[in-house]
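Title: Prediction job returns without error message
Component: structure pipeline
Severity: low
Priority: P3
Assignee: unassigned

Description:
Job completed but the reporter wants confirmation the result is attached to the right record. Sequence as submitted:
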Amino acid sequence: MNIETRGLRADGRMNIETRGHKLRANGRMNIETRGLRADGRMNIETRGHKLRADGRMNIETRGLRADGRMNIETRGHKLRADGRMNIETRGLRADGRMNIETRGHKLRADGRMNIETRGLRADGRMNIETRGHKLRADGRMNIETRGLRADGRMNIETRGHKLRADGRMNIETRGLRADGRMNIETRGPSTAGRRTDEH
C-alpha cells in the first residue's frame, strides 16, 4: 500500500486516515509527503494495524516550511516477528510545526518502532509524545533527533511504557544550537527492560 503527496502549498489541507490493516509476509505500507509550505496543513492518522513477519509501515515527510503544520498520530499497532514502524521527518523550518503522537503499541519478538527527525530550524517546533507502549522479547523503540538550531523547539514526552525481556527504548539528540530548546520527560517506565537517554 503506497500513499504519496507532493507540493501541498498556499493554505492547502489534507487528511490521511488508515485503520485496521494487516501487513504480513513482507507486506509494506508507505505514506510519503513532500513540500508542505505556506500554511499548508496535513493530518496523518493510523489505527490498529498488525505488522508481522517483516511487515513494514513507513511515514516520511520532507520540506515542512513557512508555517506548514503536520500532525501524525498512531494508535494500537501490534509489531511482531520483525514487524517495523518508521516515522521520519526532514527539513522542518520557518515556523513549521509538527506533532507526532503514538499510543498503546505492542512491540514483541524483535518488533521495532523508530521516530527520526532532522533539520529543525528557524523557530520550527516539534512535539513527540508516546504513551503506554509494551516492549517485550527484544521489542525496541528509538527516538532520534538531529540539527535543532536557531530557536528550534522540541518536546519529547514518554509515559507509562512497559519494558520487559530485553525490551529497549532509546532517545538520542544531536546538534542543539543557537537558542535551540529541548525538553525530554519520561514517566513510569518499567525497570525490567533498558532505557537510554543520550544528548
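Comment from assignee: result matches the submitted record. The radius of gyration is 16 Å.
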